[in-house]
From TrEMBL:
Similarity comment: family membership: Belongs to the peroxisomal membrane protein PXMP2/4 family.
Bilayer-spanning residue ranges: 93-111, 132-158
PANTHER family on file: PEROXISOMAL MEMBRANE PROTEIN 2, PXMP2 MPV17 (PTHR11266), PROTEIN MPV17 (PTHR11266:SF17)
Protein name stated in the entry: Peroxisomal membrane protein
Organism: Aureococcus anophagefferens (Harmful bloom alga)
Start and end residues of each stretch annotated as Disordered: 17-37
This protein's record includes keyword Methyltransferase: no
Compositional bias annotation for Basic residues: 17-28
Location(s), subcellular: Membrane
GO cellular component, one term: cytoplasm
Keyword line: Membrane, Transmembrane, Transmembrane helix
Keyword Isomerase in record: no
Organism superkingdom: Eukaryota
Protein's membrane topology: Multi-pass membrane protein
Amino acid sequence: MLVIASYASCLAQQSTKRHSPPRLRRTSPRLCSSTGGFTSDDTTTPRLVAWYDAQLRRHPLRTKVASSGLASAVGDAVAQAVTGGAFDARRCASFALVGAAYFAPILHGWYEVLAARERRWRADGMGRWPSVLLQLLLNQSLGALTVNAGFFFALAVAEDALALDLSVRTLEGARRALGDQYLLVMRANWLVWPLPSLVNLAFVPLRYRVLFMNAVAVVWKTILSLITKGG
């Protein structure tokens, strides 16, 4: 969340820079570069933010994997605190594994695909907002339907892998969960994600989109954990 807040400040500073007097522009501290990244000036940028941005530049997928795993673990921990009872460390680890090994690589590739489609649509003359809305439609239909269906199988595999008990029962249990809980997950998806996804696609640079969604995903993965725990 600290990274998101600093990045929002960066965007706001860039949007007002054109209207600043020349003297103020020379003396104002720079929070981000012209390419949308953060500067390494630790007097104006928190070191954690600068470090994360550097890791994202050097190792984009690895960094997204780590942040997604963390968001998933926090979401499950919150869900377990809400429902009460003894803390289930294996379940929390399962959600972290799903976030890192399943959600992060898929989101990384999916946003690349959407960005490529947007470039093609814009080159063909489509306006900015129509292209953003078309991406949102794809994201909340094809993307959400597919990724959320796969989530049940990814969670079943993660839980059994951590228990060292992978078997045919893994897929059988995932199919049952898919049949029982898929509609609940999709209804929750269409309540939670459209607005954050619109903001993400319209205003957040491509390389920060998984980070932005991970911030929202703490809430989303809490919901997923509550649904699957109840099932």
